[in-house]
Fold this sequence. Notes:
The protein is 45% helix and 17% strand. The protein has 379 residues and is an alpha/beta fold. The protein folds into two domains: 6-189, Rossmann fold, CATH 3.40.50; 192-377, Dehydroquinate synthase-like, alpha domain, CATH 1.20.1090.10. The protein has a seven-stranded mixed beta sheet, sandwiched between helices. The chain has a two-stranded antiparallel ribbon with strand order 7-8. Strands 10-11 form a two-stranded antiparallel sheet. The N and C termini lie far apart (55 Å). The structure holds nicotinamide-adenine-dinucleotide.
Amino acid sequence: MPSPPEASTTTVPVALGDRSYDVFVAEGGWDALPARLDAALRRTWAGKSCRKALIITDSNVAALAYPGLTRDALAAIGIDATAAVVPAGEASKSLDVAATLFEKLVAMAADRHALVVPVGGGVMGDLGGFVAATFARGLPLFMVPTTLLSQVDSAVGGKVGVNLPKVKNIVGAFHQPVAVWIDVATNGDLPDRELRCGLAEVVKYGVILDAPFFEELEADADAILARRPDRLRRIVARSCELKADVVSKDEREQTGLRAVLNFGHTIGHGVEATAGYGGAFQHGEAVAVGMVAESRLAERLGWVDAAFTERLVRLLARFGLPTSLSGLDPAAILESMGRDKKNKGGRVRLVLPRRMGHVELTDAPSADDLRSLLEDLCR
Ligand code: NAD
């Protein structure tokens, strides 16, 4: 397979001082991956000393056999790779599975320069990233996200972690990768529902930061749904740029800027928890209904008009995403929102739209406002 011409790879820089890195968004061209990886490693503290790698993937992705991560390909840049395959699914994002990977690194006699390479969706990225952040107090990490959701969201930004049996994402760290390699062609293998979940996050970027991007999504919806590689590369690269910009200004969620990424997630998390994880609403679907509900709340505050929400509903529905909370239990959603980590002084804080491309973090809605909104929307 020939190397991809530069024209078919978009490079998105993530500016974080001495932890800066590039996100490569390519259409195919896996044979270029080892050279990109080698160059990225040489720019970091892991440098030329990296001789071993642990490639972590799940059972579904292993069956797809992506070519650039074979042992031979990494051997060509002097890296001896070992593969670990864990069961596909959220249950693998656990301390138990992480422990099996730590043991694997010990068995490989991994030193502090050993590389961790998660290949797969957000579950692999979060799990592999957590292993990289904690083994020997931090190993270099090279992310290879293969779902739309992980390409536009979880692989960029440095948040890694695992779940406890009753609490999601509660044990983790900030650990930035040395680089991220995305082949948008992997989305060709994705089940429709997984593609839709990624599109919910893509729509979110338009609403929170980039009105022209939202318009572009409206205009290109058919080509995106047909998974046209050039359109996928464009939306993945733009989403990564927007996220990279936020992360570079507020890497550790200290100034409140990174909170804009939570639009749709406050009510969305409540919906996900109420419907049961892995149940009726997958994460992206819960974010879609959460964005609609939060937009309706902004309407009640007089921040946006009904036409704004209708436009959002039309695009989400065009992408096959749910937009209604009908039938859910409003009290249960409210209770779970009360545990949101953005809350302060007992008040629920939400990110709400002011206009297309601009959102603000606010605690303006009272508990009564929220209750009455959810009671109306869940009818
Ligand atoms: P996932 O990793 O479970 O992948 C979804 C499914 O798609 C899995 O069955 C997987 O095996 C399969 N798959 C992966 N690549 C495929 C491909 N190319 N073709 C066909 N099937 C493929 O889930 P996800 O939706 O990618 O990510 C969700 C996870 O990401 C959650 O655990 C969530 O908490 C986490 N997340 C993390 C962040 C962050 O900032 N760290 C942000 C958002 C989400």
